[in-house]
Amino acid sequence: RNATAFLTDLFRADTIPIPPRGLIANLSDESRHVRFLGQLTDKQREGRQHGLELGNTINRAYSNGQITPAGTGQLMVWGMLSRMLSPFPHESAALQFFTNPDFAELLEMTARGEAQNYTPAQWSSFATKIKATLPGTAKSATSNINAVFDTLLPKLSQVRPDGRTYLQAAHDAFADTTMNGKQLRRFMMSEMPVGMGIDIKVISFLMLLTGRQDVLVMDRVQITNMFDDIQRNNGSDRIVGQRQSFCKTGGQSGAAAVVLS
To answer: Measured between alpha carbons, how far is 127 from 124 in angstroms, rounded to an integer?
Structure first.
């Protein structure tokens, strides 16, 4: 009841998201949440722990100055390559990028602002060279590879009014350990070029990858766990005579990103 009242007040509309009854139940009964997490296998827990340790390692590397602006460029390219792909073609394409010395030099030039005047034809030539090296496992990444050179790197190579390239500014933000998750997310959403090709969901994944622990990224499974009555009444609820729809997550891979403050 409180959740419905809150959502009604928040949206000021007849149609609102259904209350997250699964989340409410877990908050009301800690043992319920413990039982749910207790279903995880050892392999699942070990995988999650490994991921957290990897994020902490990258976070320390940022804190120690070991990651350069070009390294942050790799991070953002990795994020762009992830769009609408399963891990296998995504990582296959990323390996081709990150083991290519010409691409490494291009990232350095992008960070320094030396690529800001490249023409679309020049950017396209880089894409052609990368695609020529792709193994069959990465062919489905072709559209994302084109986007790296059509939008992401050309925009990151531009110089901001403060004299830094956008890639340098992104690097400074990820390396700033005084910024919390909300501040970093807002910086990336408000200070980066519009239309660079990655948005809040991918940015949130990058935050997780770099060891930020105040960001939560949920997939369809976890959203269903929070809204555990989504299957009732054909995926909708009727409360006070109004049809309340479950909010969709954007239509890419079904993941939603929520940044905790």
So the answer is: 5
pLDDT tens-digit series, residues 34-75: 898 899 999 999 998 999 999 999 999 999 999 999 999 999
The Cα–Cα gap between 160 and 116 comes to 11
Predicted pLDDT at 7:
84
What value, to the nearest 5°, has the Cα angle with vertex 159 and ends 157 and 165?
A: 60
Q: Which residues of 158-197 are buried (b: 16+ CB within 10 A; e: fewer)?
A: beeeeebbbbbbbbebbbeeebebeebbebbeeebeeebb
3-class DSSP state of 259: strand
Tell me if 179 sits within 8 A of 186, measured CB to CB: no
DSSP 246: P
Which residue shows structure tokens 């690529």?
A: 115
Residues 210-219: tens digit of each pLDDT: 999 898 887 7
User: CA nearest 181: which of 257, 244, 254, 112?
Assistant: 257
The structure's pTM equals 0.80
**Residue 160 predicted with pLDDT over 50:** yes
* Residue 258 φ then ψ, to 5°: -130, 125
Angle at which helices 30-37 and 21-28 pack, to 10 degrees? 110
Asked whether 196 and 188 are in contact (CB, 8 A), the reply is: no
Q: What is the Cα–Cα distance from 219 to 256, expressed in whole angstroms?
A: 6
Q: Which two tokens stand for residue 188?
A: 């990336």
- DSSP three-state, residue 257: strand
Q: Is 215 helix (H, G, I), strand (E, B) or coil?
A: strand
C-alpha distance from residue 223 to each of 103, 116, 154, 213, 257 (Å): 38, 41, 35, 19, 10
